[in-house]
Specification:
By secondary structure, the protein is mainly alpha-helical. The protein contains four helices and no strands. Helix 1 (2-15) packs across helix 3 and helix 1 (2-15) packs across helix 4. It has one domain (2-90).
Length: 97
């Protein structure tokens, strides 16, 4: 479950748009983070299926790298957990060609 939550969070983060500071808040030392009505409502980025696969592959690669590091440190349980998570994520990807 942790691997899936992490991958979904990575996708959601990639869909986020850059925050733009409010000009009104920047002009006053007395107003902290004032946002005009509805100014914070923006469309999220739309990722392609290829973008999403790339993010999930990145999550797999991160787990494989960390598992290798844990193996070097003799932490086989942690390495095994990460390898299992990588396998779960891989099951959602098409085979690499």
């Amino acid at each position: 479950m942790a691997a899936l939550r992490s991958a979904l969070a990575a996708i959601e983060n990639a869909e986020a748009v850059e925050a733009v500071p409010s000009p009104q808040a920047a002009r006053s030392e007395h107003i902290a983070g004032t946002i005009p009505r509805r100014a914070a409502e923006v469309e999220r980025r739309v990722l392609t299926a290829a973008d999403e696969r790339k993010l999930v592959r990145s999550q797999v690669d991160q787990r494989l790298k960390a598992a290798g590091e844990y193996e070097k440190l003799g932490r086989r349980d942690d390495a095994g957990r990460l390898l299992a998570e990588a396998d779960v994520l891989r099951s959602y990807l098409p085979p690499r060609t």
